[in-house]
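Notes to self after the call with IL:
- keep both proteins in one doc
- input above output, always
- annotate only the second one for now

Protein 1:
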Amino acid sequence: MGWACGYENLYSQGYGTSTAALSTALFNNRLSCGACSEIRCVNDRRWCLPGSIVVTTTNFCPPNNALPNNAEGWCNPPLRHFDLSQPVFQQIAQYKAGIVPVSYKTHSVNKGKIALSTLRQSQFGFSNVFKVGGIRV
């Protein structure tokens, strides 16, 4: 099973690159897995682009306490950080910016919608139940 939330292939499951890894402060010990967040770049006219993106939480961005919070320790507590793929990041900010201030809002997802992934090998079977967060299964 893949990553901190148990998702396997994000493309075959319909997420593509519209996903995020969350810092400790946002990840909430896996309770944020499958949550959808709308993110907008704010307060930086030089780097921000108009509009917003919606991403699904599919992973954890681990802290690196060897680095200071303002110099590549972006996922360190107590920071609230969304680690985004480059294609998604470039929808809200210019690539060269690297790290930008954002506002975000967590949206409710289609309740009751889950997906089940199964794997069978010889005498054993494995199942992974995960939130789908608004995609069609």
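Protein 2 (the one to annotate):
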Amino acid sequence: MSTPAGNKDVLVQNTSETSDHHSSLTRVVLVCLDPVSADVTFQWAMDNFIAPQKDLVVLVHVRQVDIPVAPYINATGYIDDVTEERRDESHHLLRLFAEDLNKKEIACKAISMVGDPKSEILRKATEIKADVVLMGARKMGALKRTLLGSVSDYIVHNCPCTVIITKPQEAKHAEERRKSIQSLTGNTHSTK
């Protein structure tokens, strides 16, 4: 089922050509998934953004290959094992969400990539001419964000299209939001 899609990309699933209504697609939505924020990002996209009749949803997951740095150690077997395990996890994650889109008859492609998430997401967004990129915030602390750099921050500042960052909502925030919407729609004389 997996076929090459690009440089180091693997097309894990493609349901964009299986239905007649997919010929009317007008927008490409790139949804970046990582194990930490995938559920929140995907659910937010489904609830608030994706329009099934006009969107091609391209799901991507970028996995980094961490190479142990130590002199005089042959890590070839270790790297092969870790690479295969991470590849399988990546494909499983993408298939899980792609199957959900497929059940809802939403055109999608799921692509697994290897490399630096910043450069790979930017490359893919440019390559597919994405209209929008949706991605999650991983909630790194200030020190980690300063040392490692935030992927979402990099994409926001360098991507050629609109970028939407999703964050998990606390139950309290969701309730306050609901009350705010009710107060704005219930009183026609309100200027808020």
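Annotation: The radius of gyration is 19 Å. The helical segments are 38-48, 76-103, 117-127, 142-148, 151-158, 171-186.
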